[in-house]
Write a structure and sequence with these properties.
By secondary structure, the chain is mainly alpha-helical. 62% of the residues lie in helices and 0% in strands. It has a domain of 36 residues. It is elongated, with a radius of gyration of 15 Å.
Length: 53
């Protein structure tokens, strides 16, 4: 997915994707959804107060 959809985006308009496309393609060969969900859940959990308080 990353090779066909995102890796070909021009670096001028998408510099962060261009710089990390090879890493993203390796981590998410089929779909970005599992990794995006994991990042969303981690960020959400970090916003919660510590448990037991």
């Amino acid at each position: 997915m990353w090779h066909t959809a995102y890796a070909r985006l021009p670096a001028e308009s998408h510099p962060d994707i261009a710089a990390t496309a090879h890493l993203l393609a390796r981590r998410m060969p089929h779909s970005a959804n599992p990794a995006a969900l994991e990042m969303l859940l981690e960020h959400t959990a970090a916003q919660l107060p510590p448990s037991g308080t």
